[in-house]
Amino acid sequence: ARLEGARFSRFSLFGRGCEDLFFYRRASRALQASARPGDIVVAKTDPPLLSIVAAKAAKARGLTLVNWLQDLYPETAERLGVPFLRGPLLRTLLALRDRALGAAAKNVVVGEEMAAVLSSRGLPQSRIAVIPNWCDDEEIRPLPAQQNPLRRLWGLEGRFVVGYCGNLGRAHEFETMLEAAERLREENRFLFLLVGSGKKFGELARSVAERRLAHLFRFLPYQERAMLKYSLTLPDLHWVSLRPELEGLIFPSKIYGIAASGRPAIVIGAPDGELSRLVRRHGCGLSLAPGEGAAFAEVLRRLAADRGQLAAMGSRARLMIEAHFSRRQAFERWRLVLESLLSVPRKGATTLNAPSET
Questions:
Q1: Are the C-beta atoms of residues 3 and 26 closer than 8 Å to each other?
Q2: N or C terminus: which one in the chain shows less Cβ crowding within 10 Å?
């Protein structure tokens, strides 16, 4: 059952908290009303800590619970410095969350590092499954820049476009990219294109204006889903960031859409992090540590002058998706997990999730 959230602002901690509490209440009622004993219920974050609500309802109704964890809370909130989330409150939430995960038949996570964190919390390996997220790799396919209608529509012909698509929030940093832009101030062939929203979206726009770098940037809101295959293939390459302290708690799944579009990525994050290792292993991108703005600028200059290397990395990105991360493969992994939980013919499955930000 897809439940609508309340109309609170999700760009403030208070608004997001109100939205989540409202959703928890509706989710609990929906489970009590619609789920039947023996059903499989898949509780998906976001919102965080939905597993606690789902575990209680599953126990009361005789349901088989599967948690689908996109990120780990409350650790993420604690490392982001959310006020009051420390000491006894943090320990209480961790205990409640761990108990809910332990009550589930399976906990599906989107990355290997996340699985390792759960194991370190004492969750048995038999209760953990790693299933990476996916994109519509049949719809999103490589498209030469000259054939992309958005190049002309948005006036980007002749520019080397560095793209960012999706939510730019508290888990991301833009200072490294901004330093690179400072070093490219006089090189108008470059353009940083951001399509999306998020708490730091506006912060970045203000920083760009203050530093008088507007000639190198373009900010656009989320586009219609039908335009995704064009907005992802418009950049020559994309940049993706994750604050190093959040490794193992969040995995930037936007990498799959980028790779499906046949574009390489520059990862700004922990050099030994899971995403950095992924792009290096498949030769479909580069990774830099936060603060390496000068190196970022040099990478852009080099790739702008070597379109062959750029194209080769993009081709390897698409091959990575087809070999390891296609939507069909993800669905097959999910099928195997769910069927493994059925001792009798499946009676049904209920999925609870709130509208996504990304």
A1: yes
A2: N
